[in-house]
Amino acid sequence: MEFDPSFALSTVPTILSAIGMTLLVAACSCLGAAVIGFCLEITRRSGGVQGLAVRFLIDFIRATPVLVWLYCLYFILPYYGIRLDALTVGIAGLSIYFSGYLAEVFKAGIDAIAEGQQEAAKALGLGRLDRIIFVIAPQMLRNIAAPMGNYFVSILKATPYLAVLAVPEMLGQAFDIASETYRYAEPLMVAGIIFLSLALGISQGIKWLERRLLAPMSR
Amino acid sequence: MHDTAHDLAVQITALQKWYGAFHVLKDISLSVSRGARIVICGPSGSGKSTLIRCLNGLENYQQGTVILGGTRLGDNARDTSLARRQTGMVFQNFNLFPHLTVLSNCTLALRRVGGMARGEAESLALHHLERVRIPEQAYKYPAQLSGGQQQRVAIARALCMNPRLMLFDEPTSALDPEMIKEVLEVMTGLAHDGMTMICVTHEMGFAREVADEVVFMDQGSIVEQAAPATFFSTPNHPRARSFLNTLLH
Ligand SMILES: Nc1ncnc2c1ncn2[C@@H]1O[C@H](COP(=O)(O)OP(=O)(O)O)[C@@H](O)[C@H]1O
Ligand SMILES: [Mg+2]
Predict the structure, then answer these.
(1) Residue A124 contacts B, CB cutoff 8 Å
(2) 3-class SS at B166?
(3) ipTM
(4) Nearest-CA residue of chain B relative to A121?
(5) How many domains are contained in chain A?
(6) For a tag site, which of A61, A68, B98, B116 has the least CB within 10 Å?
(7) What is the pTM of this model?
(8) What CATH number is attached to the domain comprising A56?
(9) pLDDT by position in tens, chain A (length 219)
């Protein structure tokens, strides 16, 4: 079967109609993974029993395939009376899975902050939460904009996993077209190109943000 | 100067600290009156930084007492925050927050700890930036300033919290010679305003001019404690003498 450009073009509107869902899942999962990952890393740094527990938790999260998280949340939680819809499960699963990786990125970002920053903040009387929010987090974000952006792209590329839960994201739409028409190359190609442009958009956005954030510190 | 407990800004009694097996502070006792200017000097590694960091809870200690402004500090969060409210600290490496403007460096604690509104905090911060003669840099970032300017901002930042006691840990050691003077001038101005100051410094000119008392530390102990004129002209202890000699040469 030859590649048919006009057929490819005709699939664009249907596949694009799911771009909103893909972006919603990706954006919520990025936010979720960042929030969970940051909390994990802060707890890990606080040491003690909970710090040790979180260290194992982070390793465990990273060692478990993302599909396992999705299946567990979708099929096992209901046994405990927790019934989540497919979209929520999808976002939660991606958030948990990537939180383990982002925790490692955050660790590197915090390790790179000079020890004196914490001390100066303490000496000024700032409490732990204020130190985290106003002194540590902003400097950490500047340190890790690039690797964090890479993980955001990875999260975007992981959204098709939600097909197993029948969440109508872009690759799922493309596949639906393919199974109806028995033409795979065109819809998959179209979906691939859209993913590529979104990924490029994210990394360009991160680069721009990095330049802006770093500007005052390096002049 | 009266020697009643009420007039004491700091009273350290029989302070002992270990880092693991390493005895870093050995039976330190030191009283600092309100308004006094103490200079602490001594060879590197003698425990000067550790000592002053015990005064604002950046370090804990195993034995002895620290009384700050009449309150005995225990090893708990409440006392630590009390100590930090009463003290301001200036570090060798300035430790300004690089992601914040000079003005925000000064207002952060005012707003978050002091609960002040932005406008009020900013006008107070500008007042202290004028005091360190740097108000025109308020909207710049630390990296845009010279070392001397950064250290003066750090002093203003500490002053904003209205401390009763200022701790300086080698504030000019990271500065190029031409910038040392501007920082020492600001510190001298503070002393003339009556601020209680404990300064770890090897700036002997400053010590002579400003200090009431010079404390010489070596290997975790206070070896000698005297008025600057006495300390510099006739140091008692041989280690103080050899230390002064290395400073002169
Ligand atoms: N966190 C630490 N753990 C172990 N030893 C330390 C630590 N901090 C400082 N020391 C040691 O304690 C001694 C005193 O250090 P410090 O107070 O910084 O000396 P100074 O300020 O007089 O140069 C030094 O020998 C230093 O190596
Ligand atoms: Mg020191």
Answers:
(1) yes
(2) strand
(3) 0.94
(4) B109
(5) 1
(6) A68
(7) 0.90
(8) 1.10.3720.10
(9) 788 999 999 999 999 999 999 999 999 999 999 999 999 999 999 989 999 999 999 999 999 999 999 999 999 999 999 889 999 999 999 999 999 999 999 999 999 999 999 999 999 999 999 999 999 999 999 999 889 999 999 999 999 999 999 899 899 999 999 999 999 999 999 999 999 999 999 989 988 888 877 765 554
